[in-house]
Structure formats: C-alpha cells, structure tokens
Amino acid sequence: MLPEITLSDLKKRLDQLKKLNLSIISYPEIIDILNKEIILPILVTEVRAGNFIERIRINKGDEIFTTKQELSYRTDLENIKSFGRANSPGSSMFYGAVISSPIQLPRIVALAETDELLRSQEKGKVDKDILMTVSKWKITKNMRLAEIVFKKNRIATTPEIEKAYQFHLKAFRKNMPEEEVQKLISILEFYSEEFSKAEITTDADYKISAAYAESAFKTGNVQGIIYPSVRTDYEGSNVALLPKTVDEHLQFEEALIIHVQIRKKKVFLDNLYRTGIVATDTNILGWYKMESASEEVKNKFFGT
C-alpha cells in the first residue's frame, strides 16, 4: 500500500530522506525507514534466455585469470568491506552489462563503470593504457529482474527505458486514482535518483540503493536488478545479480584479454587473447593469442 498521506506531505518526506547524512545513519536504520515510511515498489521485467551479459575485471600488471570463478562473483565475503550500488558489506553481487540500443557492446558499459579514470573528473583529460578481461555469460533461463526506469529527464535516453516507463505508467493509471499514481511516481523517482547517483564521495552514498536492492530480493521474488549506467550518461544498461541467479541462470561462454587505449574521450579495444567457447564442466581457462588489429581498424575509436 502507498503511504496514507497527501502527495504534498509525501514529497516533503522524500526531500527529508534525500538530506539524510548517510555517513552517520546506520544501514539497518535506512532499511527500517524505507520499509516503514515510503514503501519499496518493485517494477518487474523479464530478461529472456539467449541474451548475454558481459562482465570485466581489470588486469593488474601481468595478472592473468585462469579460472571461471575468478571472473564471476566474489566468494571472499569477509573481504567485501564497502557498499556497492546494489550490495552491502559482506554480501556479494554479480555486476555486469547488457546490450542497449545506443551501446551495442556491453563491455564498453562495463569498462566505464569499472575503470577509475572513466569514472572520475579526469575523464577526457588523461590518456591511459590498461588490460582488461571480458567474460561473456549466456542467459540460459529467463530471469525476473527489478527495473529502475523513473529517473527524471532521462526516460527518453534509450528506447528500452522509455518503453518500460510508458508500460508501467499505463498500468498505474489503469488501476489507481491519479493522486495515487503521482505518489507512486514520486517514490519511484526517488529510488531511480538513488540508483543513478554520479557524485559518490564515500561508499555510504550507496546505502539507500543497496537497501532497496536487499529488500527487493527478499520481498519481490526477483533475481536481480537492471538499471541505467551512470558512467555512460544513462545510455548503457547494467545488471546486478544474486550469486544464486548466476549459478542457476547463466552459463560462462568465453573470455577475452583486451588492450584498452584511452585517448581523451575516445576508447579503442584491441583483442589480444581469447579462450574460445569453454565447456560447461571446465573451470580452467586456456588462452590463445589473437592477431592484432590493423592500423586502419585502430583508427576507429569508440566514444565514452
């Protein structure tokens, strides 16, 4: 049920929540406030089998990953000390990217979300070369995901977001009075803003989005969350999946080691090594050298 208050009072309550000092309020307090004061509406979409998710890890120095597990979700829960956009300390989440109309290569989205240079205020000012390992995962069974699509002024960013937004809005107006619709929109906009925070001072800034994710997993019968990528100006799409979802719905397909050349606001990807398709029952990765791209191709850059 929606809060039994007027739309005006609800907006005041949401404004107060936006002003909370997240560095001092505890995570359990956040969860309690969200569940008791403004509810957690969960919009559900289905991602069908046959689609792919790409995930990356940055290679440090000469580091080479040799197993599938190293490219999957973390299992060292005791070492997860910080909040993420959809996880709290001590909990593991599988973050990846999926195709969207503006960005056909999910690895571009994953890179923008992972590499510090592309996330910082230095973006576009500094050149950089890095190695990254891209893992490609096939969705083998349909997944129910909570979707975040109500960020103001960004609804028309991709056809996928606009279509989902219009679908949910039509359903709201079919089933409830307009004032209730506006209250629900205000709440969904609040959570969408939390999931799309660009300026992150400390990991505590993720407390509200992490609390939403935790509650959605417990009460919404969903296996993950899909949300727009902040670092690609909301044109890319990210997913955060529970480890159980990865085990039951994804299959490791292959991996590539890629030389990433960042030149101001342009990025070029040069494939160096690949595993090829890896058998389902095999955990060990074997790497095979690929031919370097031609100079003609190297002059074609992806914008970030």
UniProtKB/TrEMBL annotation:
Pfam families per record: RES
Superkingdom, natural source: Bacteria
Domain spans labelled RES: 145-247
Listed InterPro entries: RES_dom
Protein's recorded name: RES family NAD+ phosphorylase
UniProt source species: Mucilaginibacter robiniae
